[in-house]
């Protein structure tokens, strides 16, 4: 069977066993996004997980329902046909998934918003490296800031294109995400997300100019009040040089000036 969209099926069985074993899933409700042909699904079920598998491709859903008919009947597997970016998700504890590369960012943000105990997720290597990029480095961006604000990230496994069929053009990383409270107080999480997005949309501009370019997101008077209340040395820097604490400071000023 050919892979739909940008999905690459994991065929390295040793990698499958490692991924399924990174977290104890016995008796837990495990969300799997993009189960494909079900090799990771099988490994999770074999370890005692109760799996919720979300698959967008109708043909794959049909095959999965046939392959796992017994597990579905026993209530150990629920298959949901739909887009994991949008579909309603039942409660889950843990996430284990080989995410389609093109939607990695949106699904990761959605998972962080919903909440989970721990996630073991596969990403394109360069994407995962951006997740862990520290401030002041060329790789840092919106993804780095948002993920590190709400979770710790630990690389677990690197996979070559040979581990997949069809072979992708890139290497992959499996990482563990462990949610935590933001390291600095955030007054309004939506304002924080909007502020980070605006600033990195204009990452070559200073913070002052970047904020002023975000008038479609924040009213100009709010932006100007926030700028007047922020340290000048901060306003002269670029987003990639800011710490998480400084992003929180900017967002909290914006949130306060809205009122």
Automatic annotation (TrEMBL):
The organism's place on the tree of life at top rank: Archaea
Compartments where located: Cytoplasm
Domain Ribosomal RNA adenine methylase transferase N-terminal: 15-181
Residues reported in the UniProt entry to bind S-adenosyl-L-methionine: 8, 10, 34, 55, 83, 98
Pfam families assigned to the protein according to its UniProt record, in alphabetical order: RrnaAD
InterPro entries the UniProt entry points to: KsgA/Erm, rRNA_Ade_diMease-like_C, rRNA_Ade_Mease_Trfase_CS, rRNA_Ade_methylase_Trfase_N, rRNA_adenine_dimethylase, SAM-dependent_MTases_sf
Gene Ontology cellular component terms for the protein in this record: cytoplasm
Gene Ontology molecular-function annotations: RNA binding; rRNA (adenine-N6,N6-)-dimethyltransferase activity
SUPFAM superfamilies for this protein: S-adenosyl-L-methionine-dependent methyltransferases
Family (UniProt): Belongs to the class I-like SAM-binding methyltransferase superfamily. rRNA adenine N(6)-methyltransferase family. RsmA subfamily.
HAMAP family assigned to the protein according to its UniProt record, in alphabetical order: 16SrRNA_methyltr_A (MF_00607)
Function: Specifically dimethylates two adjacent adenosines in the loop of a conserved hairpin near the 3'-end of 16S rRNA in the 30S particle. May play a critical role in biogenesis of 30S subunits.
Name the record gives this protein: Probable ribosomal RNA small subunit methyltransferase A
Organism for this UniProt entry: Methanoculleus thermophilus
């Amino acid at each position: 069977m050919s892979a739909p969209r940008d999905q690459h099926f994991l065929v390295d069985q040793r990698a499958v066993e490692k991924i399924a074993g990174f977290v104890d899933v016995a008796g837990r409700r495990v969300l799997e996004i993009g189960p494909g042909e079900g090799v990771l699904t099988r490994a999770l079920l074999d370890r005692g997980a109760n799996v919720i598998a979300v698959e967008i491709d109708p043909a794959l859903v049909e095959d999965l329902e046939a392959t796992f008919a017994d597990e579905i009947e026993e209530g150990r597997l629920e298959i949901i046909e739909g887009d994991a970016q949008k579909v309603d998700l039942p409660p889950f504890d843990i996430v284990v998934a080989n995410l389609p590369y093109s939607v990695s960012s949106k699904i990761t943000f959605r998972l962080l918003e919903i909440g989970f105990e721990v996630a073991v997720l596969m990403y394109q290597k360069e994407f995962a490296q951006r997740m862990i990029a520290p401030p002041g480095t060329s790789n840092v961006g919106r993804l780095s800031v948002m993920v590190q604000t709400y979770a710790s990230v630990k690389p677990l496994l690197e996979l070559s294109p040979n581990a997949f069929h069809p072979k992708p053009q890139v290497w992959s990383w499996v990482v563990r995400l462990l949610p935590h409270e933001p390291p600095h107080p955030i007054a309004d999480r939506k304002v924080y997300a909007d502020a980070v997005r605006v600033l990195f949309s204009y990452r070559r501009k200073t913070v002052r100019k970047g904020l002023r370019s975000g008038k479609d997101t924040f009213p100009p008077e709010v932006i100007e009040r926030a700028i007047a209340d922020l340290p000048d040395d901060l306003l002269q820097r670029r987003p990639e040089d800011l710490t998480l604490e400084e992003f929180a400071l900017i967002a909290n000023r914006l949130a306060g000036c809205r009122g």
